[in-house]
Specification:
Number of domains: 1
Radius of gyration: 25 Å
Strand content: under 5%
Shape: rod-shaped
Order of helices and strands: HHH
Distance between the termini: 89 Å
Structural class: mainly alpha
Largest sheet: none
Helix content: over 70%
Length: about 150
């Protein structure tokens, strides 16, 4: 099968949309970090904040590599199209394969980052549950005390 110039060109829209999604993730994480920084200045000993900091550092690093692989995939698509245009078919085939592999790696990193993101949300939910349980047990203590006073 001979690779046509339209084949790598088809990836342009997919890679562009993927890069847009990765940029949106980066902006969301940046916003979370800024908000967390304010919380940290208010209460630096709160354990959930420290856990979230580690989580966000991992996510930020992963987003960087996702974007790097996405840009590399895009770059390799352009090189592939140039090689096809110059009629250097064997090299174009290998470059296209490399482009697809970097795209696959980028998507794989994205999948792992999604799981890490979910873990961060679980930390927040667990913290809220812990606070609720503490308040509930504190209220139970006061209700028991009032019954004993009667």
């Amino acid at each position: 099968m001979e690779l046509q110039i339209s084949t790598p060109a088809l990836l342009f829209s997919a890679i562009t949309l993927m890069m847009l999604a990765f940029t949106n993730r980066f902006l969301a994480v940046a916003s979370l970090i800024r908000g967390l920084h304010k919380k940290f200045l208010e209460n630096p000993d709160h354990e959930i904040i420290i856990d979230q900091i580690h989580n966000l550092k991992r996510r930020l690093s992963m987003i960087k590599y996702m974007q790097l692989c996405g840009v590399l995939s895009f770059f390799l698509c352009v090189v592939c199209m140039y090689l096809i245009f110059m009629e250097i078919q064997p090299a174009a085939d290998y470059v296209f394969i490399a482009s697809m592999l970097t795209l696959l790696i980028s998507l794989g990193i994205s999948l792992v980052e999604i799981f890490i993101s979910n873990q961060a949300l679980k930390l927040e939910l667990q913290d809220m549950e812990n606070i609720f349980e503490k308040r509930k047990s504190g209220l139970d203590f006061w209700f028991k005390k009032e019954k004993n006073d009667e």
